[in-house]
Amino acid sequence: MGGLDRDGAPLSPVVLSVPHAGRDYPAALLGALRLPATALTILEDRFVDAVAQGARTQETMLVQRRARAWIDLNRGEGERDPRVDEGVRPHGQPAPSAKVRSGLGLVPRRAGAAGDLWRRRFSGKEVAARIEQDYRPYHAALAAALAAAQARFGVAVLLDVHSMPPLGDHARIVLGDRFGHAAAHRFVARLEAAAAQAGVRTALNTPYAGGHILERHAAPARGIHAIQIEFDRTLYLDAALDRPGAGLPAVVALLQQMIAAAADEALTGDGIALAAE
User: pLDDT digit string (tens) for 152-209?
Assistant: First the structure.
């Protein structure tokens, strides 16, 4: 996780989270597949961890190593899909979310055009183990990192780093703040300005406004701001969108500028004054 001084206090108000870049595919997962393992890469934010790791200097950073196909950290615990999860009770449950209906729940059911992933349903015990061993520890560590940053600096800023398929002629970076509910706009404006200075077009909340991680951890009224950053994969991957490409250093440099802008806003902007009121 890193980013701490000798007394264990954070060195920066910025916390980085990379929940979807994991490439660790457990044997139990591979044994349940009905598709080639290569089909699962469509669920990955392919090598965006290389962007975040290259950009990080002194920030606390969490990177999920387990693949998203194993468990999706950006879903709520209740977003369990009965079509793949035997632990979901057939009655008394809330209506499935749009993500669950589309096959992208806590345990994903589908991988884009490749279709259904699994040759069997997973037992409730199997899914509960993933929640206990992977999902809850990540969220607990993220909550602790944000609390520590807020305690030291008066403000914490979570940058939740993702990547996306190209959007055609549209933006190359999509920032999400859950339509203003996850972060004060001054932080978004600083990230937009950093991207503009690098000549990269951004969009806000469309088509990605931020998921469960922002919903769960953002608390602007308490000085904890959270922004999701989606990088177009063509910016930093090769032509096949499979391996890091020639554009990686430029995207690393851009994320460094965005991190620096967020930290500067936290330390010199309105955040500290508001936190003290």
Answer: 999 999 999 999 999 988 899 999 999 999 999 999 999 999 999 999 999 999 999 9
User: What is d(CA 153, CA 9) in angstroms, rounded to the nearest whole number?
Assistant: 10
Q: How many domains does the chain have?
A: 1
Structure-token pair, residue 12? 């920066």
Tell whether 113 is covered by a domain: no
Q: What tokens does 102 get?
A: 């589309």
Tens digit of each residue's pLDDT (9 = 90 or more) over 111-146: 888 899 999 999 999 999 999 999 999 999 999 999
Judged on CB neighbours under 10 Å (0-12, 13-18, 19+), 119 is exposed
Model-level pTM? 0.94
CATH number at residue 171: 3.40.630.40
In a domain, 193, yes or no: yes
CA-wise closest residue to 266 among 220, 234, 200: 220
Residue 183: give the domain boundaries: 14-74+131-272
Rounded CA separation 202/2 (Å): 30
Residue 138 lies in a domain: yes
User: d(Cα 216, Cα 222) in Å, to the nearest integer?
Assistant: 13
Report if residue 6 sits inside a domain: no
* DSSP per-residue letters across 172-235: SEEEE-TTTTSS-HHHHHHHHHHHHHTT--EEESSS----HHHHHH-BGGGTEEEEEEEEEGGG
Dihedral sign of CA atoms 165, 169, 170, 174 in order: positive
Longest alpha-carbon distance in the chain: 56
Dihedral sign of CA atoms 258, 221, 140, 43 in order? negative
Residues, the chain, total? Answer: 277
Neighbours of 121 (CB within 10 A): 19
